[in-house]
Amino acid sequence: MQTFALLSKTALQAWPKAELHCHLDGSLRLETLLDLARQQGKTALLPADSLEGLAEILQQVDTSASLEAYLQWFRYTVPLMQTREALRRIAYELAEDAARENVCYLEVRYAPVLHTEEGLTLEQVNEAVLDGLRAAERDFGLRIGLILCGLRHLPETFSLRTAELAVAYRKRGVVAFDLAGGEAGHPPKHHLHAFYYARNHLLNLTVHAGESWGPDSIHQALFYCGAHRIGHGVTLYQDPDLLQYVLDHQIPLEICPTSNVQTKAVADYATHPLRYYVEHSLAVTINTDNRLFSRTTMTEELWRAHTACGLSVQQLREVVLNGFRHAFLHWDEKQDLLRNVEASLKQLTADPTQPSLTH
Fold first, then answer.
1. Which ranges carry the Adenosine deaminase domain (predicted)?
2. Which of 47, 52, 243, 299 has its CA 20 to 30 A from that of 321?
3. H/E/C letters for each residue in 32-93?
4. Using CA atoms, how far apart are residues 22 and 110, in angstroms rounded to an integer?
5. 305: Cα separation from own chain's centroid
6. 19, 183, 211, 300: which is the annotated catalytic residue?
């Protein structure tokens, strides 16, 4: 039972935010999904031909039986993301949506190999995404980093090629290399060469781990792949020794509450280990994962962490600051950003005129 006063969603909207775990192909606007399908003559690929119909069907994401079932929803977005124009538009709109809710630092991730089905090269795909993100940076004033993902279920040669692409763009907007996709039966250690290449070329590393597979997945991500951050990490609590290691080294967890419930990584918000992790001083961040499929925003995720997972205002503030503390930014840049964010949060949480409490 909560005993603290609740922040209003309006107050949370005003907080400066950093998002570290957001998938490009899971974060289209619903209107854009339908518009692109019509433009490209691919409406037959969608489960409905109206916004109302699509919105209703997307409610079924909540009944996904597993992570693997949840990932099947991407069959509606990826086929529409095979042109430079579509990729640029989707990247730009995602950043615009983030900026509207005061996300001032955003890391977007995607797997370039998924967008080469109609003839684009990996480089053309990446240039299109970066072009959209750069334009959004100029227009909306937020800062953006791009993360390239290898895919667990594909041969390691694809991951290595993606790591090479990430390294080639390391000083042109790409900030990290990641491994994504269904965990079961696809251990991170099968992609060692890709991670070695990225690490050996000074690239940041994050790995999806501990979402639909247990703490061994996190263990491999850390000690085989050298991950600097862990995507999700929901099952970490099942291995107290590993949890202690993650705590001792302050390895950040990229928690996505709504997605974690949808993929059945947790049964519900009340049993999510988020509060346990925060109370035990782990470096937790909150993220959307997939804005379209989870029908969410950063404000919504923070609101659910506060109201459904039980984080206090002070705990929520620290989680928000963690998003900036563990961003894949150079140290000096990060400290400058943190100082500004801390000052802003101090003012917002101290000003009695702010619409901060709900009664």
1. 16-342
2. 243
3. HHHHHHHHCCCHHHCCCCCHHHHHHHHHHHHHCCCHHHHHHHHHHCHHHCCCHHHHHHHHHH
4. 9
5. 15
6. 211
- What per-residue confidence (pLDDT) applies to 188? 87
Determine phi and psi for 239, rounding to 5 degrees. Answer: -125, 90
> Mean pLDDT of successive 10-residue segments in the chain (359 residues)?
71 97 98 98 96 95 89 95 98 98 98 98 98 98 98 95 98 97 84 97 97 93 97 97 98 97 94 97 98 97 97 96 98 96 90 42
Q: Residue 233: exposed, middle, or buried by beta-carbon count in 10 A (0-12, 13-18, 19+)?
A: buried
The span from the CA of 203 to the CA of 112, in Å, is 17
pTM: 0.95
pLDDT, position 356: 42
**E strand residue ranges, the chain:** 6-7, 17-23, 103-110, 143-151, 174-180, 204-209, 229-232, 253-255, 284-286, 357-358
What span, in angstroms and rounded, lies between the C-alpha atoms of 82 and 242? 41
pLDDT at position 4 = 55
Closest CA to 231 of 177, 299, 307, 268: 177
Phi/psi-derived region of residue 41, left when phi > 0, alpha when psi is between -120 and 50, beta in every other case: left
Determine contact, residues 84/90, Cβ cutoff 8 Å.
Answer: no
Dist. CA 198–CA 160, nearest whole Å: 9
Instruction: List the one residue out of 146, 78, 147 whose CA is nearest residue 115.
Output: 78
Domains of the chain with bracketed CATH: 16-358 (3.20.20.140)
C-alpha span between 218 and 236 (Å, rounded): 7
Sheet of strand 229-232, all strands in order from the earlier edge strand to the far edge: 17-23, 103-110, 143-151, 174-180, 204-209, 229-232, 253-255, 284-286
Residues in the chain: 359
Q: Is 118 a catalytic residue?
A: no
Residue 358: predicted pLDDT = 38
Count, in order, helices (H) and strands (E) of the chain.
Answer: 15, 10
Beta bridge partner(s), residue 208: 231
pLDDT of residue 323: 98
| Dist. CA 153–CA 274, nearest whole Å | 28
3-state secondary structure of 109: strand
